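Running this now, will post back.
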Amino acid sequence: MSLPFEEVVLYSPAPIRTDLAVFPSDAFRTEIIGRPLPDPVWESLYLRKVSKECGLLFCPSYSVPAGYRGLSAVTYHGQTLFNRTDLKALRGAAHDLLYRYSARKADCVFTVSQAVKDRVVGEYRVPQERVVVSHLAPS
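Update: finished.
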């Protein structure tokens, strides 16, 4: 598999199970950094430090580390649904704020549908030229 990059590094708090990976693991280098923590905490404490060396930080888990200043791209699959008043609803609302921040911060936002792009542009106020629809492929 030919890549348009000099190198692709997968940063992770734990070893990546290659038996579950859907990409050719020999095309990437993996670096274990930090320790397992909730994603936003791990990203801010550990990923932000090593990402200074990146030409582009791609964040497929929807969020850019707080305070990251380099080029970045995020994937956003859609709205966090919360219509209750319990802790799960508060967690959903907190994640939605993080996703909004990340979408605004990113140089490019990949979405899975036009409807999701419309939400990112309309509700998150991300310029539409920075949002790209990339439909999911069948596996």
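The mean pLDDT is 84. More later if anyone needs it.
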